[in-house]
Structure formats: C-alpha cells, structure tokens
Specification:
Blueprint lengths: L1 E3 L10 H11 L6 H18 L8 E7 L6 E3 L4 E10 L5 E7 L2 H7 L5 E2 L3 E5 L6 E4 L2 E2 L1 H6 L2 E8 L15 H19 L4 H23 L5
Parallel strand pairs: 5-7, 6-9
Antiparallel strand pairs: 1-2, 2-10, 3-8, 4-5, 4-10, 7-8
C-alpha cells in the first residue's frame, strides 16, 4: 500500500462544511446549485495545485519484485519520481534505480531481455499507471533485492462524496476555499470575485514559500 508522509492537522476537513462556507460567501449557503458550484470551484483549485509537486504529497510504495515481471502497478496517481531504492531481504536499502522520462525510457527498454535492471519509468501517469523496469529482473536480481521502495510525488485527488474530507493538509484548505469562493462569486456575486481570487493567490504564495523551505532540508 502507498503511505503518505504527512497527517493533516486537523485530520479531516469535511467537504460539506467547506462547501457551505463557500456558498455562504455569496450569501446562499443552502442553495443546492451554489453548493454544486462550490464543489466545481474546489476542483479548479485542485487543478491548480497539481501544476507542481508538493513535499506534503510525497508518498512511498513498497514493490515486491517478481522474476520475469517488468511492470508493477501503483496505488496512487503518479506525478513525479523521487527515489527508487533496492532493498535486501532485511528491508535495508542497498542500491537504487535511476529514473528516465518516458520518451527516453522507450529507447532503452528491452522487452525480451532479463537481468539486473538499472532504470525505471512510469507510464499513464494521469491515471494510476504502472512502473516499468527497462528489463525484466532475473532470479538472481530478485534474490538479491526482493523488494524496492519507490518514493514519488502523487497528484492531489478530486474530493469524493459530500460526506468525505479534502485529501490535503489543513494549510492548503484555505487556498482551495478562496479559489472556490472566487469561482462561485464569478457567477452569483461578481463584486466579490476579485477579493476572493486575491486571497487565493496570497495563500498559494504562502504554500509555495513553505514548501520551498522544506526543500532546503531535502535529502538525496
């Protein structure tokens, strides 16, 4: 399973409560049409978040290698690779695979060969997709490295049902709410739209600054 490296605090920001707050910005907190518009606005904010990677959206997945198997499914939507370590039977990192962009990888992949892979890539990244090795691991490779741990940045998912929660840290909720307030105001209270969008840009700037500070202590 894929495991996140963060736990939102407070843990759950309920989507329904955020929708009502957004609809309240245009003074129609109980209108079903406005509540649906609020949801669409939140999705546009998620689209904006997905234009970059975020340290709080870094996850890992432990992959069990199988001799002769080149492709392995991912549990979460792939955005960008971070590190793919090779682990011994004691689950200790011993080596790592190098990442190649998909186009370059296709020039290196060996479909009918087996041995010790050195590279990997991800296909179909806009859905769950797969990780592919440039050649199939043979039995000696699998014996030496039974598993690998793939760290990667995942995409921020759209919110699910109204009764669910937003799958982002609480710091990002302010941005999503402000974007959605602007989106709703565009349709129901145009005089309020620019104010909301202005707050959204401020919150996004603060998120990016905070994330860049985190990258300064990044590891390799």
């Amino acid at each position: 399973m894929s495991e996140s490296t963060w736990a939102p605090s407070p843990y759950a920001e309920q989507l329904q409560a955020i929708q009502k707050a957004i609809a309240g910005y245009v003074l129609m907190p109980a209108d079903d049409e406005v509540l649906d518009c609020a949801l669409q606005g939140i999705k546009r904010g998620v689209d904006r978040l997905n234009t970059r990677t975020w340290n709080w959206n870094l996850v890992y997945q432990t992959i069990t290698f199988v001799a002769g198997t080149q492709e392995y499914a991912l549990d979460a939507q792939f955005k960008q690779p971070r590190n793919f370590s090779l682990r011994d039977s004691g689950a200790v990192d011993r080596d790592r695979l190098s990442y190649l962009p998909w186009g370059t990888f296709l020039k290196e992949v060996q479909y009918d060969s087996s041995g010790s892979p050195s590279y990997y890539s991800a296909s179909n990244p806009n859905l769950y997709g797969v990780v592919r090795l440039e050649l199939s691991p043979d039995s000696s490779f699998v014996t030496k490295y039974p598993t690998g741990r793939l760290w990667y940045y995942k995409r921020v998912p759209y919110p699910g049902s109204t009764g669910g929660s937003l799958n982002v840290p609480s710091e990002a909720v302010m941005f999503l709410q402000a974007v959605a307030e602007g989106y709703a105001a565009d349709r129901y209270a145009p005089e309020k739209a620019n104010t909301a969008y202005g707050r959204a840009e401020k919150f996004l700037h603060e998120l990016i600054v905070d994330d860049c500070h985190g990258q300064q202590t990044d590891w390799e």
